[in-house]
Structure formats: C-alpha cells, structure tokens
Amino acid sequence: MINALPTLNYRSADAPQQFAQSFQQSGFAVLSHSPIDPALVEHTYQDWHAFFKSDDKVQYTFDPEIQAGYFPLHTEQAKGHTTPDLKEFFHIYEGHPLPRGMSNATWALFDQLRCLATELLEWIEAQAPPSIRSSFTEPLGSMIANSQETLFRLLHYPPLPQEIPPGAVRAAAHEDINLITLLPAATGMGLELLDAEGQWQSVICDRGDIVVNVGDMLQLASQGFYRSATHRVVNPDGPAQHQSRLSMPLFLHPRPEVVLAEGKTARQYLQERLREIGLV
Q1: Residue 61 domain-assigned?
Q2: Which among 50, 218, 235, 245 is least surrounded, fewest beta carbons within 10 Å?
Q3: Is pLDDT larger for residue 278 or for residue 195?
Q4: CB of 189 within 8 A of CB of 202?
C-alpha cells in the first residue's frame, strides 16, 4: 500500500494551484505548514482522550433533534452498509456547550480550522473553470459564513475487540456529506482513499499536517468538477489493534438556505443523507 497523495506546502507561492489540482484529481489534499497551531491540536486530543476514557460520557448522549452530544459505539453505519462502525464520537456545533471541565482548546481549534477552510474554499473557487464558478449560487467561502450547521466531530476508535463482528471496520467506505472536510492528522494510521483505478491507497501524513477532502455538497455545487472521494478507516494489524485512535474532522456545511444546485438547498440535502446513515 503506497501513499496516494503528495504533501503540499501551504506557504508555497503556488499552493492554491497545487491544492486545487490535487482536489480535482483525487478529491483529497494534504497540507503541511498550515496556520493551525500544532500545540492546540495536541491539547484538544488530550482533552478528548480523557473524555472518552471517562464513564461520565454517557451523561452527554446526543439529542436526536439537534444531533449534538455523545454518540455511543455502534450508533452509525455508512450508507449502503448494514454493520455499524467500530467507533464512538461527540458532535459539536457552534453555540452548544462542551462537557463540564473541558478546556477552551476545542473551540479555539474550531475557529482556526474554520478560518483556514474559508481560505481554501476561495482557492477552490478561484481555480475552477469560469463555467463552474459562474454556476455557484454565491461564493463558496460565503456559503459557510455564519453557518450553524458546521460540525466538529471528535472521534474515538477504541482498541479492537477480541471478537469483531463480520464486516465491521473502524469506518466503512463512505463519502462526506458537506462542502469540504478539514482533518488534523489523526493519532494513528488507517485512513485510506479509493483512487481513480479502484485501488485503496493509504493517506499518510505527519502530525501537524491537515488532510482536506471534497464532500458531496461541493461535488453537487461544482457539477462534478470536484468529486467527492470514497474513503474509509481500516482495522489495524499488530500492536495498533490494542491502541485507541482519535481523529477530529471539521465538516464545513453551508447555511441551510444555500442553494447547492437545481433548487436543492443544503438543508434538504443534509436531511436526505442523515436518513440514509440512520442518524435521523
């Protein structure tokens, strides 16, 4: 298994062009030297590692109406799959409280990632062909401005159980729903993407890098110019089977009323997809 993606330097003069080219070719990009504070990433991981180890987490079980809070193991299964993923997670939306005793690192990281996402959406739009740019109902960066739908998902993949249900993996193959996803490098390997030849490729990155990928909403809004890549998190071998893995993607969602294409709003599309994966 080889690394599917080159790592792009955010600070290089041609970063916007390289980033958009990687996005257009594979639906993914890996950025080094981004403005995201690595110490803030580590602090946030430490906070949530402690949370998932605590028995108190069940006090924060999610509200189905607002989709915020703690989602226990085996809550979610990918679209088209019947076996739940081997993960638990916590959903954070702006304005919703963190668990008691949590530091402010999570919100500080949320803000840094959202700011970077706005810039990357501007890169994506600027590098698209004029015919695609003209089809956007508003600038991509402004679609997420003041959106209460953007989701920060704190994920914990526990050590693998001795008996793994048939077909169960940490995260089954899927595509993201949103415009783009920003993912600070996870605490362990396992992320893979499906390339254009139908082969699974490892997404390898260093701590401090940011993985970014296309979501289905951007694919829809760009008429398929930027394609949402299928990806998964595989079960590890060797000693890693007995270790936790944490990751924390920020899913950038437009405001609910934003029209993505053909009269379909972001809210309509989101509700369709949440029903497909069993979260509503």
Answers
A1: yes
A2: 50
A3: 195
A4: yes
Is 92 in contact with 53 (CB distance < 8 Å)?
no
Tally of domains in the chain:
1
Three-point CA angle 93, 96, 99, nearest 5°? 110
Digit-coded pLDDT (tens) for 33-56:
999 999 999 999 999 999 999 999
Average pLDDT for residues 217-234, to the nearest whole number?
A: 95
Please give the backbone phi and psi of residue 214, each rounded to the nearest 5 degrees, phi first. Answer: -75, 140
Number of Cβ within 10 Å of residue 268's Cβ equals 12
Cβ contact 154:48 at 8 Å: yes
Residue 3 has pLDDT above 70, yes or no: no
Average pLDDT over residues 104-114: 98
Cα–Cα dist 8/25, whole Å: 14
Whether 2 maps to a domain, the answer reads: no
Diameter of the chain measured on Cα atoms: 54
d(CA 96, CA 72): 19
3-state secondary structure (DSSP) of residue 276: helix
Q: Which two tokens stand for residue 230?
A: 């299928």
Q: What's the CATH code of the domain at 253?
A: 2.60.120.330
CA separation for the pair 87, 106 (Å, rounded): 20
Coil, strand or helix at 38:
helix
Q: Is the distance from CB of 29 to CB of 208 less than 8 angstroms?
A: no
User: pTM, whole model, 2 decimals?
Assistant: 0.94
Position 2 scores a pLDDT of: 46
Confidence of residue 78 (pLDDT cuts 50, 70, 90): confident
Note down the domain range covering 34: 7-276
What H or E segment, with its residue span, contains residue 193?
strand 191-194
Is the per-residue pLDDT at 200 higher than 70?
Answer: yes
pLDDT at 81 (0 to 100): 75
